Amino acid sequence: MCPGALFSTAEFHRLGFAGAIAPWTERFHVVVAAARGAQVDIPAGWASAWWVLQGNLGVQSSTFHGDVGKGRLLTWQDGPLRLSAPGHVGAIGIAGPAHLWSYRLRDQAGGGDRLLMPWQVRPSRELRRLMVRVARLSRHGKARHEAALGALVAAVHESQAPVRVYLEACSGRTRQRREQVLLRLMRVRHLITFGRSTRLDLAGLAEVANYSPTHLIRLYRDVFGETPLEHANRLRVGRSWVLVRDTRMPIGDISEVIGFESKSAFCRSFKANFGTTTSQVRRSAANTEG
Known about the structure:
Layout: H1 3-7, E1 11-15, E2 20-21, E3 29-33, E4 39-42, E5 46-54, E6 57-60, E7 65-68, E8 73-76, E9 81-84, E10 90-97, H2 98-105, E11 119-121, H3 125-139, H4 145-158, H5 161-164, H6 175-194, H7 202-209, H8 213-224, H9 228-246, H10 251-258, H11 263-274, H12 278-289
Parallel strand pairs: 1-3, 2-4
Antiparallel strand pairs: 3-10, 4-9, 5-8, 5-10, 6-7, 6-9, 8-11
Helix pairs in contact: 3-4, 6-7, 6-9, 9-10, 10-11
């Protein structure tokens, strides 16, 4: 069967309570997960995109363990992937062999051999509309869903524009080589930004990227303007401010969530970064609300 024929026959799956799908045929698949316990296993050599409308999707691969939260779109083309719903969830996904994505993108700007970087974004209104439209059309076997599916594939790649600007700063003589460098760096950036672990170390991050620690620091700084640990600390500092100011979570619990060994260490770090104490921030927030 030619690639075009495979592309035009997307297979629809709806996963209810504890529903699972793992064996895949060589074509595009549209998956709607609509209940607790749903599980999807994506094989190596495939690309996929997953939009979460309700709840959270757990994500697990050899290089990432984390979640996709409500309202976010996950893109992935970096080895086998497992998605699971520990609680009630509503999500729509599109998955297919990478060569079918490339075939459909062959006439797009940039060509069809572009990788989907591991990342999460707030999808545009148009992308969300296409996700829903493709799910509805493929569910009912409508022949005209090919055009909508093609537009969705293009829109998913367009959502990567903010990530692909970093290609220019990546080392490599060819675009393919620079893409491989960016892919390895984005594994680390995705893990730092969206992973569950709050205790990240340079050796572990270097292993994720398959670089030496020294090489990772140099490349990461060249591309993103900061080292991996500087990036992780910046996110941790920002998150600590939000949790102290906008929630009633006990300070001891916040220190644990953020990844500090003790409440006192967290409070010292908080004052050093913001020039004020956690108690002062909470009093100020309470006075503002009052």
